[in-house]
Amino acid sequence: MIPHEPRPWATDGLRLLRAASPLVLTACALAACGRVPGQFEIVNNQVPTAGCSIPVNESLYQGQGRLDVSLVQSGSESAFFVFPLIRNNLPGAGSGPDTNQIKLKSFAVDISLLNAPPAITELMNGLEGNAATSPLLHYKTPWSGNIPSGGGQVSALVGAFPVELAARILGTQVLGTSPSVWMNLRIRSFGSTTTQDMESDPFDYPVAICAGCLIANVQPCPYTAPPQFTGNPCNVAQDSPVDCCINGNALVCPPSVVSQ
Predict the structure, then answer these.
(1) Which of 20, 108, 123, 213 could form a disulfide bond with 24, CB atoms 3.0-4.6 angstroms apart?
(2) Angle at 220 between CA 216 and CA 224, to 5 degrees
(3) Do 87 and 146 share a domain, yes or no?
(4) Which domain covers residue 237, as residue numbers?
């Protein structure tokens, strides 16, 4: 993860512009300060299909997520992924090279609390106020790809919740199978055209957090038939119920199955 500082301008820019005087607005237009809302946007969070394939389909999306921190493995790339559908609304090229094509460079992630019991509120406040741990809440992750102008779209996969943060939340021992914590994941995309750097409008994605809420059926390993619930195809700790089996003291999700 690459740390970054959350910038009020990125989240409140439109409000500030509306409150600014005409002289300030003119100066900003001439200097190209801030982003221009609507030019470069994250449309929604896509629903991955089998094999962790991320579609490009505006109608196939999810409006909120669920993270079961009890299922997060220590070696995982991320505890939770967001699958943004990104659109380039800059004017399309009539002919010749697409000078308004956006070349993607990175995503920024900012994690904040929406609702939580006191123990987790205290944890998050402590992380936020510590330079060594604030990168768990504010960071950038690199990405590549090209988005054609004139409404072109691409999808992506963003690690949007550090494994260490999930472990610290689980360690408070205040979570149950009914989510009592809601967090907001604010995602921004960064890129450039041949003439300018680009920053997308911020995309806010609410996530409910629990311990054990996605575990469906549990049996000894191995299962004798394929499980009913196999979990999210990109990350077993999020969004979808999953069957598990017990192997010694280890919980295996999805479960191993006897070879037929």
Answers:
(1) 20
(2) 90
(3) yes
(4) 214-260
- Model confidence, pTM: 0.86
- Return d(Cα 247, Cα 23) in angstroms, integer: 68
CA distance 106 to 91: 22
In the structure encoding, which two tokens stand for residue 57, read together? 């389909």
How many domains, the chain?
2
Query: For the segment 45-57, what is each residue's pLDDT rounded down to a tens digit?
Result: 999 999 999 999 9
Whether the per-residue pLDDT at 165 is higher than 70: the answer is yes
- Neighbouring CB atoms inside 10 A of 95's CB total 5
Check whether residue 199 and residue 259 sit in a common domain. no
Burial label, 11 (beta-carbon count in 10 A; 0-12, 13-18, 19+) = middle
Cα gap 123→220, rounded to integer Å: 36
* Closest of 245, 177, 170, 166 to residue 212, by C-alpha: 177
CA–CA distance from 259 to each of 71, 218, 223, 251 (Å)? 25, 19, 10, 20
* Dist CA 192 CA 188 (whole Å): 14
The DSSP code for 68 is E
Structure-token match 């059926």, residue found: 217
CA dihedral in degrees (158, 35, 8, 145; nearest 10)?
A: 10
38 conformational bin, left if phi > 0, alpha if psi -120 to 50, beta if neither: left
Q: Which of 68, 30, 34, 15 is nearest to 175 (CA)?
A: 68
